[in-house]
Amino acid sequence: MSGDARVTALRVLISVRERHAWADAGLKAQLARDGLSGPDAALATRLTYGVLQNQFLLDFWIDAFCTQKTAHLQPPLAEILRLGVYQIVFLDRIPDSAAVNESVNLARLFGRPKAAGLVNAVLRKASANKAALPEVPKDDPLRYLSIAYSHPKWLVKRLISLLGPGEAEAYLKADNGTVPTTVQINPLRTTEEQLCAELHAAGVDAAPHSWVPGCLELSGTGNLAELPAFREGRFFVQDAAAALTVLAARPESGMRVLDVCAAPGGKSFAAAAAMRDQGSVLSCDLYPGKLRLVEEGSARLGLTCIRTAQADAAKPRPDWAGSADLVLADVPCSGLGIIRKKPEIRYKRPGSLTALPVLQTEILDSAAESVRPGGVLLYSTCTILPEENQQLTDAFLARHPDFHREKFTLPQPVGETDGQITLWPHKNGTDGFYICRMRRA
Predict the structure, then answer these.
(1) What does the alpha-carbon distance between residue 251 and residue 415 come to, in Å, rounded to a whole number?
(2) Could you state, in order of their start, the residue ranges of all structural domains in the chain?
(3) What is the topology classification, in CATH, of domain 240-440?
(4) Which residues belong to the active site?
């Protein structure tokens, strides 16, 4: 069955490369198609994410043992070799011989039988030298960090400019670390103590988040959707940083809340729960399929105050003008704060990100029109780039003098802010996230 896990991982890696698929969604679908569960599904997941997190480093080693550079290999040979080297170097429980033989089989299975000899030779060299693998030269710090942590040079350079070399390396290391699954408790259906006990009884390791109230960190979860606690709406999956966004917004019972980029619904759910399901939450998205996810989640959680509407967040709705006490604008962004969960994001071309601030500005300007006088506009992203965060809200406030940043307090170790904050994985143990609270005069 372990061979099936490798086949599944290879199929997902191919779809990420060729179709720019998301690894998490692609993996979930491929696991279902291939009928994998339990240890086999866990191995396929480990292989997929391990290769994506270490691609540049794996290529560095492959290039040392292969007569052809990885970039010049016919697909899917590069992915097959990366899978093989990853198993040999990083997975102690898999014998090197199995990693070599199964990789040779993959070459034959995926239409490259003539390359089986090359795969065999390269992986045998990697196995023979794994106690003394070639070291990445440190004479060029930018190249070293890029290869050692498998992040493109442009991103490493940007992180160094924002954090300095030492902190940048800590950030890169956090991106490649193991991340527990964070879930938020539905206080309308359970308590922290009850949910922890229920999850432990189901064989899931669950512990309260170290500093974000209402959140648990899970490990050994398997398929969360199969747990009765999930099916019966006692929790929903959401990172602690996203939960802090709603804490900063401070929704209260009876409020009219507008969530302009709601799917898949986590912040709408958190707001409705904080409001004790009293008031109204209008959850919007451009795509009907995504709205169905919000509707299904609301029903599962028993939240009756949420309704959905198909809407383009970048276009103002005159009928919504001044209607909301609180508007949540968690806008599309580069996603560079969630690389630890979506490792393929690091391989985006920087040119593809340049148009994002234009869209974000349009959404923020549109969202502002729906805020009633005296109401709150909460802007957030899952990135750490200033041009998508504080620079963008600075420009917004310059255009809209009737809005101002408003201080908010988060749990320690953050405490009081001046109205905005950037959360960092290596500092805060959350996704990289920006939160800005603004009030309309």
Answers:
(1) 19
(2) 2-132, 141-175, 181-237, 240-440
(3) Rossmann fold (3.40.50)
(4) 382
181-237: CATH topology: Alpha-Beta Plaits (3.30.70)
Same fold, 2-132 and 240-440: no
pLDDT in tens, 246-272: 999 999 999 999 999 999 999 999 999
The superfamily in CATH containing domain 2-132 is NusB-like (1.10.940.10)
Q: pLDDT tens digits, residue range 302-355?
A: 999 999 999 999 999 999 999 999 999 999 999 999 999 999 999 998 988 889
Answer with the residue of higher pLDDT: 185 or 179: 185
Phi, psi of 212, deg, nearest 5 = -105, 115
Q: Do 359 and 331 touch, CB atoms closer than 8 A?
A: yes
Rg of the chain, C-alpha, whole Å? 23
CB–CB of 405/438 below 8 Å? Answer: yes
**pTM of the complete model:** 0.94
